[in-house]
Each structure stands twice: as structure tokens, then as C-alpha cells.
Please model this.
Amino acid sequence: MLLDGRDGRLPQGDGDGLVSVVLEINAGRIRALHPAPEPEPESNSLAAPPLALTPLVEPHAHLDKAFSAARFPNRDGTIEAALAANQAETSCRTAEDLEQRAERALMRAWRQGLRAIRSHVDCSGERGDLSLEVLDGLRRRWADRLELQLVGLVPIHHWGTEQGRLQARWLADRGGRLGGVIGAPFGIGRGDGQAVLQTLRLADQLGCGVDLHLDEGVSHRGRGVRLVCEALERQRLQVPVVCSHACSMALLPPRACQRLVDRMARLALGVVALPSTNLWLLDRRAEATPSRRAQAPIRQLQNSGVVVAVGGDNVQDAWFPGGDFDPLEVLRLAVVASHLHPWSRQGLGPFTTAASQLMQLEWDGILRPGSPADLVVLDAQSWTDLLARTPQRRILRGGIWLPKPEREEPAALLRGWGEAGLASGLVH
Ligand SMILES: [Zn+2]
Model:
């Protein structure tokens, strides 16, 4: 999958799509790939070479909120409580705190095998400019380790305001995108269609892409996606448009869903599916276990030619209390939650090649002569090993191994759960 299928010198993949190869590396790039020699029959060696992927791509994160759950928890787990905690956090955000959390996020991501991240950034309101500036500073400082793309995340009407227009130009000048929310956690409004059209026109004037949060719920099935389709049918634009979440359309009757999928394919919309946050927030009810587990209809979209990437979305914030910028964990979850098989092109592409395409990265993530000597080498020999447990890994970037993260000493101070709530205690 991550090798060039047109390279006739390489053998066909086995039943799991795997090929054993030997790499020649020169000056940080791949000089040549050869088929691995057959093991000697008398060697009795049963050990297969380690599984290796090219570094993965995170198409949808929120670096500005990451690791804020401890101070702004959402113990109800509802989308309304998430929004309230999010707003409380942004209202007292400081540059120092934001920089520290986002830097920690980038370090985790880089060490765990990501090479590019698209991060949405809350940028309406008083501290919006501060958040953009802090993250842009990090974007420049980290540019030789990973590519960071910024997307302004606002209620969709914001781009029509004076602050919105200034921020849009600022983002476009730095390779950023215009984002926005249609539908949950905000309500729906009659002016949404016009605001979408206005946003797309503004992006087109500025020559920057658009990446919207839409239909993150189980009601108003596919409404946000339809508004985007209508706007693009009214005025065809050149800028790439990505729909993030796109969950509720999956609850349409199958034929209506397929019609909408075909419409999206005709308009060349991209989709980012975000199973972890969707599984955590959607169809949440106090007295019942969820049954409507809506997520973007990934397979139908792929089968109709829509480019679909899968992202990790929130990490330890009010919207999702888990996550750690570990792309292998996102992949492992999607195998179960979205039935994406890593041994198939459609299963692995959303984390690698399709995600690179959606983010318009220079490298498509396929190893071939001339491509970067970048690898994530796993302590696993098969997909089953990868599914059994999160593997240890070594990261090769530009032909050089990254240092292993230092081991942290286990703490003697422990926490346990007591009837009265969380309790702390020292181990003697
Ligand atoms: Zn998001």
C-alpha cells in the first residue's frame, strides 16, 4: 500500500498486502528499493521483518484545546457541557499556557510518528488573535519536523464580520484555511446557507481552502453537507472544500444517503471522519446506552470516489477526555469503529495517502526512489500484532532515527476512586 504499485520490480503483496523490501538510503532520501532476498531454507528462521509504515498524517486536531481537560473537565460528556467548558477555557486562555500545551502536543505527535497536522483553532472573540499568533509561532518553529496547517474555527457567520475578514486574510497569507461550524453544538439558523456561500466566496478570493465542522449530531440529517453542495452548485469555486465529521448524513435512508454522496463526489468535496469524538459525544443519553452511533459513511463515500481521511480530533479536552496524538491508536480504533481494514488500500489510505491528498502535502506518503527516508518501524510483524496491542515503534526521519522518549519514573503518589469521589493517597 505504501509502496509504488507501478514499480514492476517489487513482488505482489501477500494476503495481508505486505511486501518485504530492502531500502537503500542516501542523504536522507530513498535511493533504491529492492525485493528482500528469500530466507535460506536451512536457516530455520521464522522471524518476519518488522512492519513499517511511512509517517502518518493527522488531518484534524485541536492543538489549542489539547490537554485542557484537567482544568476544564466535562464529566457529563454531553455536547452542551463540552461547549460550556470550551468557552470557559478560551475566555481565560493565556499565551504561556496555550504554548505549553500545544508544544507538548506537537512533541507527542512527532515522537509517535506524525509528519503533518491540520489543527483547527478557536479564533472568534477576545482571545482569538492571541491563539492564532501562538500557534503560528509554533508552526514556524516546528516546520523542519512536521507541517502544521491552521484552520480558523468560528461560528460560520464570523467570516462576515470585520474581525473575521482580517483573520481570513491573515490565515491565507500563512497557508491557513477557513473553518467554521454548521449545526451542533450551535443551533441551526435560516442564514446558514448564505453564510456558507459567503465563506466559500471569501476563501476563493483569498485562494485558500475551506474545512468545515458540520453535521456533528444525530438530527437534521445531512443538512450541513447539503448547504455546502447547494452553495457550490450555485457558484462553482476553485478552492478545495473539506467536510469534517459529516455524521448525520449516515442516518438518511440508504438511497437518499447515496444521492448525497454522489453529489459530494461530483463537487470534489473531501471528508474527514472523526470516530473517537463521535463515539464519545453522539446519541448521549442519561438513562440509556447509545444506539445511533453516527459517523461519516466512509465506505459509501470512498466507493463513490470521495477522498476520505480519518483524524483523531480532540485530545484530553472537554470534547473527548482521551487521546494522545498517537496515530496508531486512531488507526486501531477505526479498524473496530469504522471497519477500515489496514490490509486494504481503502483501510490504510485515510491515515496516509488520502490524508496527504486532503491536506495538499508535497509528499503523498508512498516510498519510492527520491522520496524522504521517513519510516515508522513497528515492533509488530503483522496486522494482527498491531491490533493485539499498541506496538513500540522507532521513527526514522530523513534517514536518522529519532531518539527514544525518555522513560518516566513511576510516581509513588497514586490516586484511587472512592465513594466520595476521587481520592489521592501515598503508597507506603
Ligand atoms: Zn474538530
